[in-house]
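Bench notes, bay 3.
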Amino acid sequence: MKLLETHHVPLLKKPIRLQEYGVDIFVTIPTKSALKKAIKKGLILVDEKSASTGLYIRGNEIIHLYQSNQKSALKKLILPLEILFEDDYLAVIYKPAGVLVSGNTFVTIANALPQNLQKSTQEDAVQPQPVHRLDYATSGVLLVGKTSRSIIALNKLFENKEIIKIYMAVCIGKMKSHGIIKIPIDNKSSETHY
């Protein structure tokens, strides 16, 4: 394994689980799910010992992130995507209906991104990844991060509701020009303004 990054933990006021503490400390791991995957693959060591997601960090530990020596033999997905905008940090693509954004299936937007986008030249470049989801049957604009910093920044914008999503639907029959629909979805309360 090749050492990618090292993090020295400052003294903490109270212990915190590694999977909570570890988010945003490594340039090459921008998300909590990526951190969990790295831990499960044994790529993160704390004080030279293999880490687990339940490990508590107290302070003064040294956390190492390694890169696996195994080459990925994954098959490439050939799925042409319409790219609306792309730079070294992010991309905006059109997601067609009938394709999953990500998940446990081969044909996903996430699996098609590396073959459709230019690799970032930034030092914190990562494999491009969607920063939000659109349902399987929904078509529309999808934001994709290409660097750790851009993924973190875009996630914060969504978290703080600074990015507004607007949906359009085709309806059958006559509707009023505006209104509110209050119908539970999956047994959860839901309110839609139109």
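Next record in the batch:
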Amino acid sequence: MTGAGLLGILIGLGLLIAFAFRGWSVLLLAPLAALIAALCSREPLLAHWTQIFMVSAAGFLLFRAAGIPRRLMPAAIVLGTSTFTMSALPGTPSIQNAIPMP
């Protein structure tokens, strides 16, 4: 991965977070952030959009590949986002942050 590609990922993620906190829908922001990341990678934009992002997004939103019922989608989204925020973001109250505290 080139430096420009990594920068595109960080810019796309930063914009996704900033606009999501302002109340924009993540369903609209995710494709735009993916376009920004693909644009900065200096590779074919349409190929990234159609062959990578849209295929993965469709597989996640219809759950058809795994045969998982659609009624379980909200649970998967909540568990995925809560486990990320409980361990990956700085300052979260996780055990490795709580041990050295007085």
